[in-house]
């Protein structure tokens, strides 16, 4: 599958991990949002080169057999770097950024200074009534916004995070930059 090309409004990114170590990325997914609201997705398995925990395998269904022959993190992220360096990256909570930074650290490289935003922050501004009433996790937003995706698949979760932002923009009449507000991270 080819990495989407071009200029996008933003790129949503999600990762799945092999174990409790955030750097143990075993899947990367992105969802690139075009000016017209269309979404181009891309996903790859990653060989984290660490042991998988039973909990994580049950959560996302990815184990050592699935990543056999997949690229390691350095090779998997390389084709994404030009795209991600040009766009604001939306994550759903701060986990994905921590995972990416941790995985870069394992390779001996410093993480790039990409611009990050959080769709949880956007959702809190668009749906304050969910605070203390189900929250702003993807599982609850899936129900409330009638999103259709397979949770705990990096490509699907990235697309869901992108759709949360688009729903929030429609609900509030504000663009994602305004919804993120100052101090985007």
Keywords:
185 residues; alpha/beta; Nucleotidyltransferase, domain 5; five-stranded mixed sheet; globular; Ribonucl_H
Structure description:
With 185 residues, the chain is of the alpha/beta class. The chain has a single domain (10-180), classed as 2-Layer Sandwich (Nucleotidyltransferase, domain 5). The chain has helices spanning 54-60, 64-67, 73-77, 81-86, 95-107, 119-126, 138-145, 154-172, 176-180, and strands at 10-17, 25-33, 39-45, 89-91, 116-118. The chain has a five-stranded mixed beta sheet with strand order 3-2-1-4-5. One of its GO terms (molecular function) is nucleic acid binding. Pfam families: RNase_T. It comes from Paenirhodobacter ferrireducens.
| Strand and helix order | EEEHHHHEHEHHHH
What's the gyration radius in Å? 16 Å
Under CATH, the topology can be stated as Nucleotidyltransferase, domain 5
State mean pLDDT (0 to 100 scale): 94
Summarize the structure.
By secondary structure, the protein is an alpha/beta fold.
Secondary-structure topology with pairs:
Layout: E1 10-17, E2 25-33, E3 39-45, H1 54-60, H2 64-67, H3 73-77, H4 81-86, E4 89-91, H5 95-107, E5 116-118, H6 119-126, H7 138-145, H8 154-172, H9 176-180
Parallel strand pairs: 1-4, 4-5
Antiparallel strand pairs: 1-2, 2-3
Helix pairs in contact: 6-8, 7-8
């Amino acid at each position: 599958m080819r990495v989407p090309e071009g200029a996008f409004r933003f790129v949503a990114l999600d990762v799945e991990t092999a174990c409790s170590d955030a750097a143990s990325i075993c899947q990367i997914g992105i969802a690139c949002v075009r000016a017209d609201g269309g979404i181009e997705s891309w996903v790859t398995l990653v060989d984290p080169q660490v042991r998988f925990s039973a909990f994580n395998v049950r959560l996302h269904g990815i184990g050592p057999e699935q990543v056999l022959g997949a690229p390691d993190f350095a090779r998997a992220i390389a084709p994404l770097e030009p795209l991600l360096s040009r766009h604001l990256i939306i994550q759903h909570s701060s986990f994905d950024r921590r995972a990416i930074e941790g995985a870069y650290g394992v390779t001996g490289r410093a993480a790039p200074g990409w611009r990050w935003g959080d769709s949880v922050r956007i959702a809190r501004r668009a749906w304050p009534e969910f605070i203390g009433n189900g929250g702003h996790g993807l599982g609850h937003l899936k129900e409330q916004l009638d999103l259709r995706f397979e949770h705990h698949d990096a490509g699907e979760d990235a697309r869901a995070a992108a759709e949360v932002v688009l729903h929030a923009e429609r609900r509030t009449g504000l663009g994602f930059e305004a919804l993120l507000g100052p101090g985007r991270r």
